[in-house]
Amino acid sequence: MQAVILAAGQGTRLRPLTDNCPKCLLSVQGKPILQYQLEALSDAGVRRCVIVVGYRAAQIRSYFGSHFRNLSITYVENEIFDRTNNIYSLWLARQEITEDLLLLEGDLVFETGLLLDVIKSPHKNAAVVDRFHSLMDGTVIFAQGERASAMVLKADQEQGFDYQSALKTVNIYKFSHHVLSGELMPTLSSYVAQGMTNMFYEMAISDAVAKGTIQLHILPTGARVWTEIDTEQDLAAAESMRFWPTPLHSSTTRAPAAY
Fold it and tell me: Which of 18, 132, 193, 223 could be disulfide-bonded to 166 (CB atoms 3.0-4.6 Å)?
């Protein structure tokens, strides 16, 4: 299993902190956001990671280089990051994806155990989710049992949208190479060919769920600690969180709670 981390964005909501620093290199409790992800991947036994860079790409390459612990790192550069979105960044990485995949976004901080839960899950295609609350925004999932029945992007959440049973996507996914190569990447390629490069990759997942061409399971975070960092308020909140370390090769993890 390999990983792709999307880290090409400009982090405009974090300006002026991101004027001279990419968002993924901003410090949380003394180390860069991206380092949390690379440490978790390495500790979970992943050995290949592709990082899609764009804004201030050279800083990220220089900071982490081609190896981090046991991880081999390959970089893919989105040279038009300022006028595209993550749908295009993921599409650019298509040639580097040769096996089952962990997909992460580069503004997440989480405890290693969360990633271990994903890898150990028997489900080949899964989305990590948390209970939705009013301070969250972004893509949500509705589920029937352990399986996603609908995925709704933020742009489609109109006034009066019912969030009562909504689950927030954490932006950590696991996909089989079969689903990636046979379903998701062809859909992304179709969008890109139509010039829809300033959209979100979740569109392809949402379409596949709606059509029934992917069985996407949900993996609740339960007691696992995580946060997405989009604003200075998010950054400040992350400084007070406790991200529990998981010992290398640990065979015990806290079981996620069911929703």
Answer: 132
> Can you name the CATH fold of 2-238?
Spore Coat Polysaccharide Biosynthesis Protein SpsA; Chain A (3.90.550)
Report the alpha-carbon distance of residue 106 to residue 87 in Å, rounded.
Answer: 14
Structure tokens at 58: 């050279």
Domain range annotation of the chain? 2-238
Which of the four pLDDT bands, split at 50, 70 and 90, describes residue 134?
low
Report the distance separating Cα 220 and Cα 168, nearest Å. Answer: 10
Query: φ, ψ for residue 58 (rounded to 5)?
Result: -60, -35
Q: Residue 229: which of 5, 8, 13 has the closest Cα?
A: 13
Two tokens at 181?
Answer: 């190569």
Contact 8, 89 (CB under 8 A): yes
User: DSSP letter string over 14-75?
Assistant: GTTTTSSS-GGGSEETTEEHHHHHHHHHHHTT--EEEEEE-TTHHHHHHHHTTEETTEEEEE
Q: Measure the CA–CA gap between 135 and 191, rounded to whole angstroms.
A: 31
pLDDT one-digit tens code per residue, 151-170: 998 888 888 888 888 899 99
DSSP single-letter state for residue 183: I
Q: What's the mean pLDDT in 97-106? A: 96
d(CA 94, CA 128) in angstroms, rounded, equals: 22
pTM value is: 0.90
Average pLDDT in the 60-67 region? 96
Q: What are phi and psi of 93, to 5 degrees?
A: -85, 0
